Amino acid sequence: MPNFPAPPKFSIPSLDAVLGELDRALKTLAATPVAQRENPAGRLADHPELNDAERQRVIGLMRVNHVGEICAQALYQAQALASNNPSKKELFRHAAIEEADHLAWTQERLNALGARPSLLNPLWYGGAFALGYLAGQMGDKVSLGFMAETEKQVERHLNDHLSRLPSSDLHSRAILEQMKQDEIEHGQTAKDHGGAELPVPVKLAMTAMSKVMTTLAQKI
Hints:
By secondary structure, the chain is an all-alpha fold. The chain has seven helices and no strands. The protein has a single domain (51-217), classed as Ferritin, core subunit, four-helix bundle (Ferritin), CATH 1.20.1260. The chain is globular.
């Protein structure tokens, strides 16, 4: 088991930094997200209509994925805020930009299905931001390790969702496949930059929290 550094005394961000994070939170939660990359499903031809049961299943899955991207924005912005290393700050910021594409794509898919995102998104954002900032206060190695483990768990989650999609829903599948590839790359980047392996109890706690979130997000 790796030796983790003792948590330093919590640093307090400047007022400008706090206001900047509040602005990012409001934009993430209230503004219509705009992707920098083309939606992977954008060039697909129309597909057969989903029946009611299939549509409700896809809505639940895509709502959960949308919540995951809300959390990703909070996590990476908080980790960037907590880091004192300019290159690590840029790494987290860059990951957040790519995750913003995922947020836009999942929002577009929910819109196409005539569905709303989770009503608890402000709660998810706040909780994820707190976790990301706490990880960042433990130092960059731990923070990057948290990023790597998060992406590993998200990859498993996406594989599960891909197996549960109706075979005719090529649009959702294209989006999730590209998201999966990006998550794998983010996780590897975190490892390449010195991310520490997290203790098993921490990984289990992350899995448990994810289970609570995904269960609630499908319905609320």
